[in-house]
């Protein structure tokens, strides 16, 4: 089975953005316009240069996708974009704020720009929503909001990471801006709370002598240099530290993470670390973005998307409460206590429709739950941060962590269609073993679902194993507010439940992954057998090892893991019988696939036993394996289910892949075309359902895998004679 091609790169969406911006003349009037007037939203963000980290093309995609869903009560969304890297931001702000059809402006990028333009926008009573100004104190105006947490959260995260990685003293370098001043003020208390000392501090601007600063740092002898600076200063600081022969590492805050850093430093960027805001992994935004644009979202793309959502929802609220102030409407939007609605175009369009109908949904954005403190400029109450490292010329991220306790909650079966709309579109339910964000099994299934939704017209609902009791009740009582046409359940955990649901609901089609052949006329089960692909992984690992010891870390000793382990052992033994294979399990059952800390500890144990190649088959626990491997060095990894080289491009040599995304896509495609076929489908190495993907930096092993392909297929056939 072959994958459908991805959507092409961001330039298409930049063209789309220009098209949206240049739609014909807008009708004058307030935000609550007629049914045909577009909802015009101003945007003041850079499209190029060191600070271009917001994804204007992502905004174009969001607007276009929501418009395809019907917009807001039939009104289309128009993004009026001004590139602040190519013009005068004050003039742009005056222009957009002066337009009668624009009541909300998204931007700007920096604290200095916000100080400059906020009075120009707010004096006209317009709302300003910045996705990336993180300085603690910016303005007291209730017309200035932000979708990013303030720097206090990030400062705490930085020193927690440093403590956990063994750093005990640092030198602090901060930009001579409100952004840098915030870090300079907050760092001492945050460092002290984590037991990290600050050996010295310096404030810099672009014209300073960085060689002098590097010399000062040399005298302080820190274990790490923490720099809250913008990309240009980060590049100059890195160059100065290298020239001075400083042994200290460089740790940057979110403003320093930019393609400009990699382009300017090249190989000299290797090893630089930092933190940056991350999308909420459970929302799937990062997966959808990568599927659309062929690359990971830049640091503030999710927050920029969320700023657009808030603007759209506020416009919808203004339709129903035209006498309410803009600030009051936005405050009402983020205080929703009703049905939970997510970020994606379908969910966002439904949320807007609910608001128009008088509903009050609890909204979640791409960056996480959109809940705010009493002071709007304080930003969201929580956000996700990731610890990144430059590795192989790329920003490689660890497991995103929330800045405060958050409960993962998918929108689930959260829609109650308005009268007369039920049955207008087919309905597909997707039930994952875990919430999205595992970078493996669930995320790959979501990729296929997202791809299908970009191609076909249907409504999707998403749940996870945590919703099992709810699903049992709904299927048992057949108490559907919105009856599904197709239900896709993913993972062995649902074997008993899927059978019960399908037997009780013969008019609903069930497509199950990794479960059983139920023999029901309304059920199709897909079994993906990774034995042959794992056999090739064992061959490759046996060839790579320098110690003669390789291993596997699995989530739990369950049936779905068996073909991975058995194939890996068989391949290694066929290549070199002297190679030792050690297998460790993170847990005894399902929970082992979500314990990255425990998986990291097992990695350290294997390294202590001289294991130097590890097969990762532990779901979201794999991120703990990667983090531990990065620290211990001298070990290579093989991923699972999907190409996982992005986790650590110089460490992940290959991945045992299952074409889950293609299988989910075709399940939906068959449903849309009326071609559902019950029974069992078995996907193997021979028919292309599984395979060994050799990572780009390890292409020299591709020939080895090709040479052993036929032997792997033959071994898999023997395995299948008894395994099924």
Please report which band the strand proportion falls in: under 5%, 5-15%, 15-25%, 25-35%, 35-45% or over 45%. 15-25%
Poorly predicted tracts of residues? 1-30
Query: What can be said about the biggest beta sheet?
Result: 8 strands, mixed
Estimated radius of gyration: 26 Å
Which of globular, elongated, flat, extended, rod-shaped describes the shape? flat
Helix content: 25-40%
> Taking all residues together, what is the mean pLDDT?
90
- Number of beta-strand segments: 28
Alpha-beta classification: alpha/beta
Can you walk me through this structure?
The protein is α/β, with parallel strands linked by helices. The chain has 23 helices and 28 strands. Strands 6, 7, 8, 9, 10, 14, 15 and 16 form an eight-stranded mixed β-sheet that branches. A six-stranded parallel β-sheet has the order 18-17-19-20-21-27, with helices on both faces. Helix 13 (345-356) links the parallel strand 11 and strand 12. It is flat and about 75 Å long. Mean pLDDT is 90; it is low at 1-30.
């Amino acid at each position: 089975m072959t994958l459908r091609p991805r959507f092409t790169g961001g330039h298409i969406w930049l063209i789309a953005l220009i098209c949206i911006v240049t739609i014909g003349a807008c009708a004058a009037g307030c935000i609550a316009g007629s049914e045909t007037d577009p909802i015009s939203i101003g945007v003041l963000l850079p499209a190029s240069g060191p600070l271009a980290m917001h994804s204007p093309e992502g905004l174009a995609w969001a607007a276009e996708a929501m418009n395809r869903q019907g917009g807001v009560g039939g009104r289309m969304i128009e993004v009026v974009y001004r590139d602040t890297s190519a013009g005068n931001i004050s003039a742009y702000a005056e222009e957009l704020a002066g337009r009668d059809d624009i009541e909300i402006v998204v931007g700007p990028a920096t604290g200095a720009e916000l100080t400059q333009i906020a009075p120009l926008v707010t004096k006209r009573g317009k709302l300003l929503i910045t996705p990336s100004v993180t300085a603690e104190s910016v303005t007291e105006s209730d017309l200035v909001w932000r979708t990013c947490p303030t720097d206090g959260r990030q400062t705490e995260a930085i020193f927690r990471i440093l403590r956990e990685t063994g750093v005990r003293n640092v030198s602090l370098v901060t930009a001579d801006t409100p952004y840098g001043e915030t870090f300079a003020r907050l760092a001492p208390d945050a460092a002290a709370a984590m037991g990290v000392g600050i050996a010295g501090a310096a404030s810099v601007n672009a014209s300073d002598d960085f060689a002098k600063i590097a010399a000062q740092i040399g005298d302080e002898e820190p274990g790490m240099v923490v720099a809250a600076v913008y990309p240009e200063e980060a590049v100059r600081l890195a160059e100065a530290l290298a020239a001075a022969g400083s042994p200290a590492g460089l740790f940057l805050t979110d403003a320093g993470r930019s393609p400009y850093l990699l382009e300017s430093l090249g190989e000299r960027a290797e090893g630089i670390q930092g933190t940056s805001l991350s999308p909420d992994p459970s929302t799937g935004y990062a997966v959808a973005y990568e599927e659309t644009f062929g690359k990971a979202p830049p640091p503030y793309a999710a927050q920029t998307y969320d700023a657009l959502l808030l603007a759209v929802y506020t416009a919808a609220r203004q339709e129903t409460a035209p006498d309410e102030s803009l600030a009051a409407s936005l405050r009402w939007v983020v205080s929703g206590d009703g049905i939970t609605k997510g970020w994606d175009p379908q969910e966002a369009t439904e949320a807007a429709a609910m608001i128009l109908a008088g509903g009050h949904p609890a909204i979640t954005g791409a960056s996480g739950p959109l809940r705010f403190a009493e002071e709007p400029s304080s930003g969201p109450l929580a956000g996700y941060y990731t610890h990144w490292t430059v590795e192989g010329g790329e920003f490689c991220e660890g497991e995103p962590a929330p800045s405060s306790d958050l409960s993962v909650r998918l929108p689930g079966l959260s829609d109650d269609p308005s009268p007369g709309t039920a049955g207008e579109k087919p309905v597909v339910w997707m039930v994952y073993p875990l919430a999205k964000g595992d970078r493996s099994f669930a995320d790959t299934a979501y990729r296929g679902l997202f791809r299908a939704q970009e191609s076909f017209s249907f409504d999707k609902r998403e749940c996870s194993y945590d919703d099992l009791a709810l699903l049992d009740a709904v299927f048992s009582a057949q108490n559907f507010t919105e009856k599904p046409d197709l239900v896709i359940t993913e993972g062995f955990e649902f074997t008993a439940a899927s059978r019960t649901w399908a037997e009780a609901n013969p008019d609903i089609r069930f497509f199950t992954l990794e479960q059983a052949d139920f023999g029901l006329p309304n059920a199709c089960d897909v079994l993906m057998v990774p034995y042959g692909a794992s056999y090739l992984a064992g061959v490759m690992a046996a060839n790579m090892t320098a110690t003669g010891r390789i291993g596997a870390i699995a989530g739990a000793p369950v049936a779905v893991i068996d073909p991975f382990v058995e194939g890996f052992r068989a391949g290694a033994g066929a290549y070199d019988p002297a190679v030792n294979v050690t297998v460790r399990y993170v847990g005894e059952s399902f929970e082992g696939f979500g314990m990255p800390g425990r998986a990291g500890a097992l990695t350290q144990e294997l390294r202590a036993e001289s294991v130097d190649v590890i097969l990762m088959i532990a779901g979201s626990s794999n991120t703990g394996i990667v983090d531990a491997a990065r620290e211990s060095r001298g070990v290579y990894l093989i991923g699972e289910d999907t190409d996982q080289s992005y986790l650590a491009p110089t460490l992940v040599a290959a991945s045992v892949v299952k074409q889950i995304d293609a299988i989910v896509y075709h399940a939906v495609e068959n449903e849309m075309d009326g071609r559902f076929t019950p029974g069992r489908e078995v996907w193997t190495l021979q028919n292309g359902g599984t395979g060994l993907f050799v990572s780009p930096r390890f292409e020299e092993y591709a020939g080895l895998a090709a040479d052993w392909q036929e032997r792997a297929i033959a071994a898999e056939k023997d395995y299948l004679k008894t395994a099924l």
